[in-house]
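$ fold --in a.seq
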Amino acid sequence: MSNIKLLTEEESDKLIQILQQRFEKNMHRHAHIKWDDVLEKLNSDANKLWSLQRMEETGGEPDVVVLNADSSSLCYIDCSAESPKGRRSCCYDQLALETRKEHKPKFSAEAMAEEFFVSILTEEEFKALQAIEKFDLKTSSWLQTPAEVRKLGGAIFGDRRYDRVFIYHNGAESYYAARGFRAKLLLD
């Protein structure tokens, strides 16, 4: 985590205020979680605030989401209505970026996720998120791709159309103005 720069006290306070307001406004995403428990986790690891700041700056609108009722883990997930604007127009991973011959995108989803110390949502997490609320009605989001698919040159992404969640495939080197990625940050 050598790339992490701690936020100033003012930046931390401003971010925590944004996160608390979003948390209180969207209780359906985390009905049985108390803000004080989240705040305690945030205050115990300044690195998490740095990652959340990156998610916020790129348009992710991160919020605490309970994807699995059986899990005691707290996590933040991008809850912007559409795939985060500052993370679109990217190919899937660094290999795809390097092998693309022309019109290369500026970055890959996987590399940016690593830079932010977050993970890209899995197919299961994307579907669970969609069960809580409707996301990606006009955009799509890259998803963690199974190794056997990636080995063959592909990558998967998801969106919501016609009131259904769809999971698709594409060449990993492809990129579109309406495709980005949603991130997850575990607090535990």
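$ fold --in b.seq
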Amino acid sequence: MPFLLTFGDSNTHGTPPIVTRGDYHRFDAATRWPTRAHAALGPGWELAEAGLPGRTAQFADPVMGDHMNGQWGLKIALQSHGPVDVMTLMLGTNDVKTRFGASPDMVTAGIAGLLDIALGQEMQTRHGGFKVLLICPPPVQELGPIASEFIGSAAKSQALAPLYAALAAARGIGFLNAGQVIKTSPVDGIHYDKLAHAALADAVAGAIKAMI
């Protein structure tokens, strides 16, 4: 029975666009893109959702905590689930927050570090080999109730897709530019609305089918 692991941040977790800071909400399983993609893959697939709001590819967050560093989270996820057949990786939105001061190249380097973990001998041997689909998130819009955390982030996030694509090609893995499929919500400029989740789910399922 094939196993799908979706690893990412709040947009993998299913956080809807933020209206009021501090309120916690999550889209239901009928709405979230990982569960919808899982259903679109057809019967027989298993799914583990590993989306953590605030997660970065490489940074310990001084506000949200050290556990936001995706390097630790990825190791935990890969040692907790499986055997994994396909893993999606979609991170980078939080890495462009103002407080990290990361350039597009630095953000991409963080993704490269995660791929080193996922594609390394230890994890590949543990799971009997698995494929990776790297997803570049759509660009950030600097608006809404959390815009102050993303000053200067729009331009950085717009530069990520070609860097991610080149990285995916170099590592021989799948790639999906989510920015060609969806846009972030104008409510907060970071998260996806219900229609975007549906569209992304279809794109991810199609990319996975093409890989296998």
